[in-house]
Amino acid sequence: MWFGVVTLFPEIFTALQSGITGRAIEEKLIHIACFNPRDYTQNKYRNVDDRPYGGGPGMIMMTQPLRDAIHTAKESAPASPAVIYLSPQGKMFNQKTAEEWITKKNIVFVAGRYEGIDERILQTEIDEEWSIGNYVLSGGEFAALVMIDAMTRLLPDALGHKDSAAKDSLSSGLLKYPQYTRPEVLEGLAVPDVLLSGNHAAIERWRLKQSLGKTWLKRPDLLQEKKLTKDELNLLMEFVEEQKNGKCNSSN
Ligand code: 4G4
């Protein structure tokens, strides 16, 4: 995938050079190109902000350097990109959005600073407005980072091991089952017996039951959206029963 980012702070995107996204860059699964409006200024002082018509506090991103940076980003894309503005007023980005967008191949993210951008740039340059949550950030950069990270780990070959994106929390619409590593007993708490049994079918069923149960306990809203099979409903009912019996049976 090719990501163009229009930003006054391209340094922020060096954060993607670590971990899974870093490896994805090295292996050319993703490419990130930043376009800084500051580099497109034509005024003596290289200003990138401007005063709002009508007055009031705060500044707006200056139109000319911003437009030129967006145009260059679009022209630099290998094929016509989707242009996305990060804003608290946008549609809510989620795991499903990430799954859909990895089919897009080319995306330009426009990260706003100050009080945002001129309405006419929204109308003429931006295809869609998206948000990562109901909170205000100093700029769109961290929202773009979040989206790029969420998409990258879904790309085939991005994770070292097959299957693990599919086993992630939320990709199934359920929360991840509880996970354990050494030691076998920690502060008197033992790893559930089934995980030491070597019975892979039993382990899979236990994990599915735990995923269903944890989702029911912590994120019941997710279960509303998901239609459960008869088998899954039975596992969830078993979990609920065990829960009532008072969290006592570690082999379940
Ligand atoms: C548009 C208007 C995204 C964009 C004003 C961007 C939160 C999100 C911005 C601003 C953002 C989000 C500078 C207030 C940039 N904040 N929730 N800030 N501000 O995805």
What do you see in this structure?
The chain is an alpha/beta fold. The chain folds into 2 domains: 151 residues, SPOUT methyltransferase, trefoil knot domain (Alpha/beta knot), CATH 3.40.1280.10; 76 residues, tRNA(m1g37)methyltransferase, domain 2 (Trp Operon Repressor, Chain A), CATH 1.10.1270. The protein has 8 helices and 9 strands. The longest helix has 19 residues. The radius of gyration is 23 Å and the shape is elongated. The mean pLDDT is 96. The structure holds 6-{[2-(dimethylamino)benzyl]amino}pyridine-3-carboxamide. The site of 6-{[2-(dimethylamino)benzyl]amino}pyridine-3-carboxamide has 17 residues, from strand 5.
CATH class of the largest domain: Alpha Beta
Low-confidence stretches: none
Number of helices: 8
The share of residues in helices is 25-40%
Number of domains: 2
Q: Any idea what the CATH superfamily of the largest domain is called? A: SPOUT methyltransferase, trefoil knot domain
- Alpha carbon gyration radius: 23 Å
CATH topology of the largest domain: Alpha/beta knot
CATH architecture of the largest domain: 3-Layer(aba) Sandwich
How do the helices and strands follow one another from N- to C-terminus? EHEEEHEHEHEHEEHHH
State the shape: elongated
Main-sheet strand order equals: 2-1-6-5-7
Q: What's the story with the biggest beta sheet?
A: 5 strands, parallel
Mean pLDDT: 96
Number of strands: 9
Bound molecules: 6-{[2-(dimethylamino)benzyl]amino}pyridine-3-carboxamide
Q: How far is the N terminus from the C terminus? A: 43 Å
User: By helix and strand content, what is the structural category?
Assistant: alpha/beta
Strand content: 15-25%
